[in-house]
Design goal:
The protein has helices spanning 103-114, 117-135, 140-156, 164-178, 185-190, 196-210, 220-229, 234-249, 258-272, 279-286, 290-301, 304-307, 331-338, 352-360, and strands spanning 2-3, 6-7, 20-23, 28-31, 37-39. By secondary structure, it is mostly helical. The strands form 2 sheets. It has a 3-stranded antiparallel beta sheet, with no helix packed on it. The radius of gyration is 31 Å and the shape is extended. GO terms for molecular function: RNA polymerase II general transcription initiation factor activity; TBP-class protein binding; translation initiation factor activity; zinc ion binding.
Length: 361
């Protein structure tokens, strides 16, 4: 309590260091040593769970509303008019007012006036972020950070012309990166209504506008999740992690994204074990095309003996692992490719002048 501007601590006079027990029903503070009531009229700051209806099981006992949200301009303390409830606890039918208007329409109009345009935009964006986070099982800390990022962008008005859904999706992607649980653009795009290209644009604009940064993603950020989704054992996950880590450290896969390197490492480790996974299965989980996995796998296969961890049990020897040979370049192949007749997927493309030069020769 406060007396004369100074804070006075409530404690037992006989046992100043003893813990106090709060009796919320009686509103008392009791000494745990001697049982002396040292304080009364304790205010319960929790939710009010009483209800003054007919105590029906289907009635909502909470009458105090949701928790205060500091991200809203009005601290979320505005009053909204709810629908009429009958004595049985069910929603009553909308009635007609004395002026001839529908009560439901009047409630809807009143609630629109209670929220400002800014708060309404924030509310819709927070619902969108919460829905996307629930679909990919993200925690509340990530959702709160994404909401805060969207609030900063909205107040700064630095992304005019961009849709709120795109900003919300990019904010969720940045929040995942900053919280140490990164998700790929394709994963965010799968639960959003925005294209991957637009999310990527908003991602760069938000980083520039807020002058913030995110940690670089590594192969280890995705390895455990990808292997768990593929139902791979722990030994394969450890081998894939070692392969990807050594490949990055020795610069075997220059210019390759960590996601594609992780997918190729999982493919190599699974093919050497008894739990073999195809490129399509890994590509569906990692969101990487099969050709991308093959290109990274070719680079890893050249140093396969150096990449596998010591003591790894090979079910399939390295010599018998899948090998993909690149098609050799030929002017006939490219001439057929320009006419949509080529069957080689890895041939180069030549311009018309080069094709004419080869045809003349």
């Amino acid at each position: 309590m406060s007396i004369g501007g100074y804070m006075q601590l409530v404690c037992c006079p006989s046992h100043p260091d003893a813990d106090l027990i709060e009796d919320h029903r009686a509103g008392d503070q009791i000494c745990s040593e001697c049982g002396l009531v040292v304080g009364d009229r304790v205010i319960d700051v929790g939710s009010e769970w009483r209800t003054f209806s007919n105590e029906k099981a289907n009635s909502d006992p909470s009458r105090v509303g949701s928790a205060e949200n500091p991200l809203f301009n009005g601290s979320d303390l505005s009053t909204l008019v709810g629908p009429a409830v009958s004595a049985s606890g069910a929603s009553a039918h909308p009635s007609t007012t004395a002026g001839g208007g529908n009560a439901a329409d009047m409630i809807k109009y009143q609630n629109r006036r209670a929220l400002s345009n800014s708060d309404r935009t924030l509310l819709n964006a927070f619902r969108e972020i919460g829905g996307m986070a629930d679909k990919i099982n993200l925690g509340q800390a990530i959702t709160d950070r994404a909401n805060y990022l969207f609030k900063q962008v909205h107040d700064g008005r630095s992304l005019k012309g961009r849709s709120n859904d795109a900003i919300a999706s990019a904010s969720l992607y940045i929040a995942c990166r900053q919280e140490g649980v990164p998700r790929t653009f394709k994963e965010i795009c799968a639960v959003s209504r925005i294209s991957k290209k637009e999310i990527g644009r908003c991602f760069k604009l938000i980083l520039r506008a807020l002058e913030t940064s995110v940690e670089l993603i590594t192969t280890g950020d995705f390895m455990s999740r990808f292997c768990a989704n593929l139902n791979l054992p722990n030994t394969v996950m450890k081998a894939a992690t070692c392969i990807a880590k050594k490949a990055v450290e020795t610069d075997i896969v220059p210019g390759r994204s960590p996601i594609s390197v992780a997918a190729a490492a999982i493919y190599m480790a699974s093919q050497a074990s008894e739990c073999k996974k195809s490129q399509k299965e890994i590509g569906d989980v990692a969101g990487v095309a099969e050709v991308t996995i093959r290109q990274s796998y070719k680079l890893l296969y050249q140093k396969a003996r150096e990449l596998f961890p010591e003591g790894f049990h090979f079910v399939t020897p390295i010599e018998q692992l899948p090998q993909f040979k690149s098609m050799t370049w030929s002017p006939v192949c490219c001439f057929m490719h320009s006419h949509s007749l080529c069957t080689y997927p890895y041939c180069r493309h030549l311009n018309t002048a080069t094709l004419l030069a080869f045809s003349n020769n």
